[in-house]
Amino acid sequence: MKRIILFILVFLLIGCVYASDFSKVTVNRVDFEIPSEYSSGDTMRGKYVYKDIRTFAILCEDDYLVNGYGGYYDIVDDSQDLSIDGRPARLLTMFNTYIDKNVSYLYFPVNRSVYCICYQGNDVNESISHIVESATGSSMSSDTFYGLLDEAYKAHEDRQYLDRVNTDYSDYVSKTNQHKDTSSDRLVKWYLLSH
Fold it and tell me: For residue 46, is it left (φ>0), alpha (ψ between -120 and 50) or beta?
């Protein structure tokens, strides 16, 4: 009997220590358990940020998937498709020269949304896995999730292409107009000098 009581006390003590290692934050009505070291961040519309995005953040990407995911995927050093507790996820990792460290962006579905955890490092450790596992589940299939990310990247590339074409066309129109203005100036000068 004493051993059972001792075992229960040890189990409760370990549970209390484990519970104190995490804090709760809410992003767009979704609760996440984050490591306590990141608990003094700011909650804003659709995101939770500790210091800055390069240090630690949880972002709801619903309105920013094309720019956020597409932009990061364009410059990423490494990309991995993962499964965390049966949930599909994609990890993007790149070296950030400003802070001289790797920064990772872990995308995963929650309900019908896509969230991203930004953090320093290049792998998914127990703490990062716990954040994903603590969030509400999703009925989004792996095919749907990865298809959504791939479409976001394609949309980003299409925007980049259109921006380049628009810039090239604007430059062409500017040079064409400049040429016409110069020709008109010469014609006016010739007329004034010759008559």
Answer: left
Whose CA is closest to 129, among 145, 43, 121, 101? 121
Among the residue ranges 7-11, 62-66, 132-136, 155-159, the one predicted with the least confidence is 7-11
Do 23 and 40 form a contact (C-beta atoms < 8 A)? no
Of 75, 84, 70, which Cα lies nearest the Cα of 148? 70
Which pLDDT score, from 0 to 100, does residue 185 have? 57
- Measured in Å, how far apart are the chain's first and last C-alpha atoms? 120
Q: How far apart are CA 136 and CA 111, in angstroms?
A: 7
Note the residue count of the chain.
195
111 neighbors 138 (Cβ within 8 angstroms)? yes
Per-residue DSSP letter, 38: G
- 50 by Cβ neighbours in 10 Å (0-12 / 13-18 / 19+) ranks as buried
Please tell me the pTM assigned to this model.
0.74
